[in-house]
Amino acid sequence: MRKVVSLIVLLSLVCAGLILIERHGVESENRQVALFMDGTELLFRSRLTGLDLQAYLHELKAAGLYGVASHVVALRDMVPLGDIDIKAAGAEARAYAGELGLRWPTPTQTVLHVKRAELVEPLIALVKRLSGDRLETTVFGNVIYTEVPYERLRRSSLGFPADLRAAADEAGLTFMPVFSPFSGSTAAEFAHFLNTGEFGGVMFTGNRIAEDLAGSDLLQEVIARRGLTFYWLQRADTLRSYVPLDGVEDVLTDDTAIVRAYRISRAETNNPAVTPENMTARWVNSITDYNVRAIYMRPFFREPDIAFNSHYVRYLIAAVERLGLTLGSAAGFRRFFPHPLVQAGVGLGIGLLCYVLALKAKIPVVLAGLGFLGVALAQFGLFTPWALWVRLGLGLVGAVAASFAALALLREWKCPWQGYFLINLATTALALLVAAYLSDWEFIKEFHYFRGVKIQYSLPVVLFAAMLWLPRLRQLPHEVLGEVRRFGLWKSVTAVLFLGVVFYIYLLRAGHAHAIGQFELNLRFWLDEVLIARPRFKEMLVHPVLLTVLYYRHRLPRLIVEGGLVVSVIAQVSIVNSFMHLRTPLAISLLRVFHGLWLGTLFGLLAVGAVALLFKIYGAWPFTGTRRFGKR
Description:
By secondary structure, the chain is an alpha/beta fold. It has 26 helices and twelve strands. It has a seven-stranded parallel β-barrel, surrounded by four helices. A four-stranded antiparallel β-sheet has the order 3-4-6-5, with helices on both faces.
């Protein structure tokens, strides 16, 4: 039996090592970042403030900007520029028509007033195309009455700004078209546009490639034929949504290069407290934590605009270069898909881990063996179309098991210091085992992602507590009552309520998205800047609990020690969860765990010293109900 177990352990370690080495190689190859600035906003700002767009782009190019990214200009965005006016059907349209000296439109007609002569014919053609055969359109020179719904008309577009494209070409900047699902947009139109010039790639945003996906095959053919890079843009407010673009499977081929891009909202950029320096911290975090290789910057609207944003570009470039990366065109990560046989070897290792834990929990050997057999048979699913779900399911089981296995197996280690470090080292190794099972190109690009985060956060705590307390369930109430008597009723109730609130907040913050206060956000960015990989607060704050209960386990009541161990599961869960962020490079996750360990150890030493001081002053109080000095 021992030989079989040793063979499975060796096999799983070799297979996991092969996968992780290849993954690290893939993550280490792409060392170039592309910097784009929102060209549409540069154009609008130049028009509104009288800046020379050509000079503006030349300065940004000299600062190191790679290109400008631009979406199609919606009609609603042309209103503040003074190019057009749009008045909704009804009283507003009638009043505006009266001001122009024209007859009233019908109650269903919206008024479109074109103020630039060169836009009249294109807009008439656009409105007629949107109207089709069923909606009435009336033209009075440069004024158009249309039954196209007001909102749909405002969201429609004439396409990409030609003057911006010309200025970018003259400045030597790459022009990046950004396709959004504006009303009336079709994949066929996007395909036609990509044949009109030279582009650095194609960028998609939103949750859909186009409103009308008809023509996706044409779009796929153009992207493949021209070898265009596919930039998947995620905004700051959707970066954690984990929803691939609707229709993307119709556009991508097996050879399409995909680059992850990131953009921060205009509202945040307009915040007076936001500066190029703290904004750069956001970009650096997106590069290190999300494998972002294309930065979609928004210009600051602060005078003097040209000098301010040129400094912004230079500062960001310096920060990127400090990471050891270079600037230029971005390339997609090389695709890698481990062979199912190699993945099966890792799966057997996860099954063996669960088998050992089952035996530790005194589950009958037959049942534990049947569970391992089930995991082994499930590996045949890796050769079927359901391979993804097999990996996700066993990956979740493995993540749950890895989150408390080290505590379950090593908590009684004689030397508290050795036990402390062995527990964290073992948890990290088991987390890497599970990460290897889920690692491939699609998880790195996050077209797939680890599921069941809240289960992985909560179930290990419950299972470990059950492993400790179920064997003596009958005696447990007496032990609890004894501690309540020694500690005091109100103190006990307060402690239980406090722990309940902490656990609730812990579960509330579990998952891919949760609210973060501004102070914590600033602290995260500062830690990212100082340490490159920010340690997780759960590890820094909970590691001291583990170190303290291990160090004083012979002086503290059994129930208190076990309660501390249950709380310590939180830090182990955090370690495992760090590696379940499969988009994050392995090196960054390892560095994050290392920082959490040494900082947690530092705080743990302070906690051990504080408890020693309490013992020195109060003796065994409050656990025995007596104090060394004074009266109770």
